[in-house]
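Colleagues,

For the teaching module next term, I've prepared a clean inverse folding example: a structure given as tokens, and then the sequence designed for it. I'd like students to try predicting residues themselves before seeing the answer, so please don't circulate the second half yet.
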């Protein structure tokens, strides 16, 4: 599947105890295959790497995904100490309502750790949701209390307990203990109408692997279990996110794409690029035969900064072509080149040797290109590779006389 460029929109919506803050990731070209809600891990927040990267990956696959902060977390209102499994499930329902208000029907829930338990608890209240994926989720909801080192006796005695997680001081209240009913969770799983995907890692040092197995065994209906060997509880690392995102996207029976993106038989022809205006003052959707991305202007120029600028694209064309040309030549000649780094900048300078300008103050466009070659190279090899840089096809095109022919179609 072709991966789409993604737009991110900050939204707020009413939750169980005040306004909730979220980020809605959408495919930039508008081609939708579904919509999802991502529920983050215990006290983590929507901007934790797993939440932000998996949501973005799903959006790249055409699944608009809302990741949000639970009550009392991040930018969401309310008191964290007054929350629990039931209130977090309420927040998930509120998130699906927020999608509905934006003409998006949530059919997928993805819950990380405690968020997975909350997704299961919310399932019977969400008739539009057909698929639930849990990542490192606990079956024993009260296990969370033990994992953060909080004493149940202290909560029973004082009605609350202080703890620190990810460097943040937090308070857990009696409501959390009261709502952490394993019997209720077992009932939710036994009557689960949605298809369930359980993702859990034997390497998970926070929520034991057996917890995922118990969720799978207790669940009714259509269910799948995937063992995530070598992935930690927080799913750190780009490879972990790619793997998890690909598993979830591959498991979903994604709807036929709908929206503005060109159908496969209406893609740009090989060697051509199509540009179309998008939302905002300057944003453009750019399409090639197999890729889609966004061009925009920065905020200080009135744009939304959703993608590289036109001059960024120009510099990228020269830089990527230069690096490819150098690397290809080195490979063919057996030169031990490891990597190439190129930095480029566009500017204008006075054309001191301009004889046809007339006003004496003409300027020419200048592209400054700095190349760094990595590898055990001799001085002669470095000199040769720098010469090869000027043979890049884009370089030659830019230095050639260019005629732009414009027609209306």
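(Answer key — instructors only)
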């Amino acid at each position: 599947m072709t991966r789409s460029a993604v737009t991110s929109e900050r939204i707020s919506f009413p939750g169980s105890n005040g306004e909730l803050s979220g980020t809605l990731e959408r495919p930039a070209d508008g081609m939708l295959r579904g919509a999802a809600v991502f529920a983050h891990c215990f006290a983590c927040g929507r901007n934790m790497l797993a939440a932000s990267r998996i949501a973005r990956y799903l959006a790249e696959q055409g699944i608009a995904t809302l990741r949000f902060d639970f009550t009392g977390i991040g930018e969401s209102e309310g008191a964290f100490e007054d929350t629990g499994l039931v209130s977090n499930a309420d927040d998930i329902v509120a998130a699906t309502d927020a999608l509905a208000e934006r003409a998006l029907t949530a059919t997928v829930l993805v819950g990380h750790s405690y968020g997975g338990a909350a997704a299961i608890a919310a399932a019977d209240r969400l008739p539009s949701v057909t698929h639930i994926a849990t990542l490192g989720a606990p079956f024993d909801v009260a296990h969370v209390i033990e994992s953060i080192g909080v004493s149940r006796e202290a909560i029973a005695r004082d009605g609350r307990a202080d703890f620190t997680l990810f460097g943040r001081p937090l308070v857990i209240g009696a409501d959390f203990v009261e709502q952490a009913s394993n019997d209720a969770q077992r009932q939710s799983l036994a009557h689960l109408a949605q298809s369930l995907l359980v993702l859990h890692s034997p390497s998970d040092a926070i929520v034991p692997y057996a917890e995922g197995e118990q969720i799978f065994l207790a669940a009714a209906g259509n269910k799948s279990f995937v063992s995530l060997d070598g992935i930690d509880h927080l799913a750190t690392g780009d490879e972990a996110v790619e793997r998890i995102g690909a598993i979830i996207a591959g498991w979903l029976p994604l709807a036929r794409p709908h929206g503005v993106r060109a159908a496969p038989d209406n893609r740009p022809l090989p060697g051509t690029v199509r540009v179309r205006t998008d939302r905002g003052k300057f944003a453009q959707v750019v399409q090639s035969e197999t890729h889609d991305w966004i061009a925009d202007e920065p905020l200080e120029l009135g744009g939304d900064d959703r993608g590289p600028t036109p001059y960024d694209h120009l510099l990228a064309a020269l830089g990527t072509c230069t690096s490819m040309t150098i690397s290809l030549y080195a490979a063919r000649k057996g030169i031990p080149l490891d990597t190439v780094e190129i930095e480029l900048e566009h500017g204008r300078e006075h054309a001191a040797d301009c004889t046809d300008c007339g006003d004496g103050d003409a300027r020419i466009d200048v592209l400054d290109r700095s190349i760094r070659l990595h590898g055990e190279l001799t001085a002669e090899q470095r000199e040769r590779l720098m010469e090869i840089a000027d043979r890049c096809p884009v370089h030659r095109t830019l230095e050639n006389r260019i005629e732009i022919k414009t027609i209306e179609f």
